[in-house]
Design goal:
Chain lengths: ~290, ~220
């Protein structure tokens, strides 16, 4: 079964942003532009995560989803601030294929069952923001890793599966945006204990990290951002536009994140394919486009 | 070019807009409907679907859509089912509890087992890209909407159940997941149905739409 490589686009208002440990958001450009580019480059799916999830921003998110769905014919997962069954219905109607829920699911686990009965298990992704504790255990957080829930990660993942979740998106808040690599121990802990696919997220800074998350961590999919975004910005300065709000100092500076070795989707796929990981259309391996 | 009209059946079970977007992308007029007359007047019909089988059948009953679907297929005009829209064509499903399907294709719908024959855990749903293999390529593939897609091309799947048609001649392609080979598309007379989602299968999926829609044009021109 091919492993999925999924660009994750964090969204604030009309902009694509990226932070470190899910905080300190920098404006990178327009999500639709990045989404289109990644789709053309062979992304297996896309994730839009509304990281601020403020009520007043909902219309703009739905417009972004609708515009994206009209030109991108691969699966789109949308998360962030989905509190009710109606919220889920609205983003699905706007053009999302799956939804990711975190806070609402932790506050009311029965919502997972209700949503999966209504929209199908495979539509419901439970997002878990994990932070490693001093004693080595992992606890689930909400609100971009700010709010402690007292819920232990592995037990929560198993419960989410039992309630009908179709997938788990497992974020290591400790690693997010750092480029230090996935928390392989966390990925492995959850992946081998649940019978639904696990998407590893947080920390990819170079090719080897992605391979490790799959090979050692047993991830069924990996969600990546910085490793893709910074390279795209560096090489396509004219491609990306942004609304003049939020923290654009970073963009103006033209600097990347020094710990992150940028790579394109084809480069990533070629690399993991060369290591024996099946993936869709690794270019230049003999199973690429054309006969 | 835009003379043909495709009805996308709305039975409150799916993201209809992604199917409509795929039609729009191929410059085909499509409309979302639950109306018998509109369905019967269409040049072709798509039955999409995501979700639970029994609930889908209940919705089809409630919306009085079962006989329009059967009657439309009897006209010989092109009919496409995707994912749950394919499963519903079968005789019966084992999902949750036993449920009867439309019975247009003989066979049943069954769930992926939790453990493979090799004793390994199977992750369900089957989510992601997997390759399709023609089982009767000479007779089927080249005549079907798959004709411009390469043998063993990757398509996007997301499902926990799969179809087991009784007549092998109904099976167009198979796909293997965790050692289980299952039917990933069906072709029988004017019925074309896929377990995968052509509307989510990127450029390759759009090729399937293009060929299927061009068949509709040809058919209409001849009549």
């Amino acid at each position: 079964m091919p492993v999925r490589i999924i660009p994750r686009l964090d969204i604030k208002g009309p902009n694509l942003v990226k932070g470190i440990h899910l905080e300190g958001l920098r404006v990178l450009g327009k999500p639709e532009d990045f989404a289109r580019y990644y789709y053309e480059a062979g992304a297996d799916e896309l994730i839009y995560m509304d990281v601020v999830a403020s009520l007043y921003g909902r219309n703009s998110l739905e417009e972004i989803i609708t515009r994206t769905a009209k030109e991108i014919f691969s699966p789109l997962t949308v998360g962030g601030g989905l509190r009710t069954i109606d919220d889920i219905k609205n983003v699905l109607r706007a053009g999302a294929d799956k939804v990711a829920i975190n806070t609402a699911a932790i506050k009311n686990p029965a919502m997972i069952r209700e949503a999966s009965m209504k929209f199908g298990s495979s539509t419901i992704v439970v997002a878990i923001e994990a932070i490693r504790q001093a004693d080595g255990s992992y606890m689930a957080y909400t609100d971009n890793g700010r709010d402690h829930t007292g819920v232990e990660v592995l037990g929560w993942a198993k419960k989410a599966e039992e309630l009908g979740a179709g997938e788990i998106m497992l974020t290591s808040v400790d690693r997010d945006g750092t480029g230090l690599g996935f928390d392989v121990e966390l990925t492995k802990m959850v992946s081998r204990e649940v019978s639904i696919p696990v998407i590893a997220h947080g920390g990819a800074g170079e090719l080897e990290h992605i391979y490790k998350a799959i090979d050692e961590g047993g991830a069924d999919a990996v969600a990546i951002s910085s490793i893709l975004h910074y390279g795209l910005i560096a090489h396509h300065k004219n491609l990306v536009g942004y609304d003049a709000e939020g923290n654009i100092e970073f963009l103006k500076s033209g600097k990347g994140n020094s710990r992150i070795k940028s790579a394109g989707l084809d480069e990533i796929k070629r690399y993991i394919f060369s290591k024996g990981v099946e993936c869709r259309h690794p270019i230049g391996t003999g199973v690429a486009d054309g006969e | 070019m835009n003379d043909i009209r495709v009805a996308i059946i709305d039975y409150q079970m799916s993201n209809l807009y992604s199917v409509k977007n795929a039609c729009d992308h191929n410059e085909i007029i499509s409309f979302i409907t639950s109306d018998r007359k509109e369905i019967m007047d269409a040049d072709a019909v798509i039955l999409p679907g995501v979700g639970a089988f029994a609930e889908a059948m209940n919705n089809l009953k409630k919306l009085d859509l079962i006989s329009p679907i059967r009657d439309f297929i009897t006209t010989g005009r092109p009919f496409m089912g995707t994912c749950l829209g394919m499963q519903l064509l079968l005789s019966e499903s084992e999902e949750f509890q036993y449920a009867r399907g439309l019975g247009l294709i003989k066979g049943k719908v069954t769930r992926f087992p939790k453990i493979s024959s090799r004793g390994e855990r199977i992750k369900v749903p089957h989510i992601g890209w997997n390759s399709i293999h023609g089982v009767m390529r000479r007779r089927g593939w080249d005549k079907s909407a798959l004709r411009s897609v390469r043998e063993s091309e990757y398509m996007y799947f997301v499902h926990s159940y799969y179809v087991v048609p009784e007549n092998e001649s109904d099976i167009l392609t198979t796909t293997t997941y965790s050692g289980i080979e299952f039917c990933s598309s069906i072709a029988r007379e004017n019925i074309f149905a896929t377990q995968f989602h052509p509307e989510k299968s990127s450029r390759e999926g759009m090729k399937i739409y293009r060929e299927w829609l061009s068949d509709i044009r040809d058919k209409k021109r001849r009549t």
